[in-house]
Design goal:
The protein is mainly alpha-helical and about 110 residues long. It contains four helices and no strands. The protein starts with 8 loop residues before the first helix and ends in a 9-residue tail after the last helix.
Length: about 110
């Protein structure tokens, strides 16, 4: 599957038809809304393309039932995890500095199981 096919109308039609057929046959889908994993551990903007295709099939009555089971199993500890919600609420981003880097070494002491 191409990462983006918004300009390729033929590919989009073929892909949507293929997904419709898979849904009609009762196949399950596994996909990740963020599109890919972040190599830096930072949050990525969600990509709603496949989700939109699935919902369009449901709204067009191509499938009778559609179930979404959101699952997250995450063993990583991202440094931005505690500051990110505040940033989304409008708080200013914590400036990275030498002192910040030294405090980050405390993360290495945490028992991750």
């Amino acid at each position: 599957m191409k990462r983006s096919f918004k300009d390729d109308i033929l590919y989009k039609v073929i892909f949507n038809t293929y997904v419709s057929k898979l849904l009609e046959d009762g196949n399950a889908f596994e996909f990740f809304v963020e599109g890919t994993r972040s190599r830096t551990g930072k949050m990525l903007k969600p990509k709603f393309g496949l989700l939109t295709v699935l919902l369009d099939n449901f709204y067009d009555r191509n499938v009778e039932n559609l179930f979404f089971v959101p699952i997250n199993i995450n063993y990583s500890r991202v440094l931005e995890a505690e500051s990110f919600p505040g940033e989304m609420l409008g708080e200013s981003k914590v400036k990275e500095s030498t002192g910040w880097l030294l405090k980050a070494f405390n993360v290495l002491k945490i028992n991750f199981g």
